[in-house]
Amino acid sequence: MADHANIRFGDGPKPPLRRDAEARRRRIIDVAVGLYRTQGTDFSMDRLAAEAEVGRATLYRFIPDRTALLIAVLERHLELFSAYLDQWKDRDDAFMLGIRFLADRATASRGFGQVAALDEQSPGVADWATGVMQALLLDPLRRAKAAKLVRQDFPISDHGLLVLMIAGVERGSRQEDVSERTEKAVDLLVRALRP
After folding, report:
1. Are 110 and 38 in contact (CB under 8 A)?
2. What are phi and psi of 55, to 5 degrees?
3. CATH code for the part of the protein at 16-64
4. What is the number of helices (H) and of strands (E) in the chain?
């Protein structure tokens, strides 16, 4: 899958990096995504550097602190989200697939779930992330409404509530029940959204 999007928080586009530097930065972020998934926030920057196979100086050149790390992880999740939506661009059910993707990310990656706390350290990041998600979901929602999969009066601004509903089921379930209960919750939401 190509993840061609260049989704970045902040003012204007980031300066381009050399190909090898971009590969190192991407490896650091991908390792961080995995560490957030398995360790939560309980990993050291030294561990991140070691697992990404970069020196501390390289790590801190690309990711100067934990706030920058969380923003980079959020950007990575949104890039992946964009890439998946691009794969589903001809599907009428892409909106619900996108909602499910976001819910799974919110549950699996504690880094992705830290947006509200991150907004305190970097004001505007929550609004920015919500805006990116809404912009990416606009066309899938339009297709879902045209296919009569979603009510015409469903506002894009409520996408976050759908994500939280599904993520809440995943978080509030025993591990062995997560899959079945999540599918049931998604089915209930799909039926509730239909005209």
Report:
1. no
2. -75, 165
3. 1.10.10.60
4. 9, 0
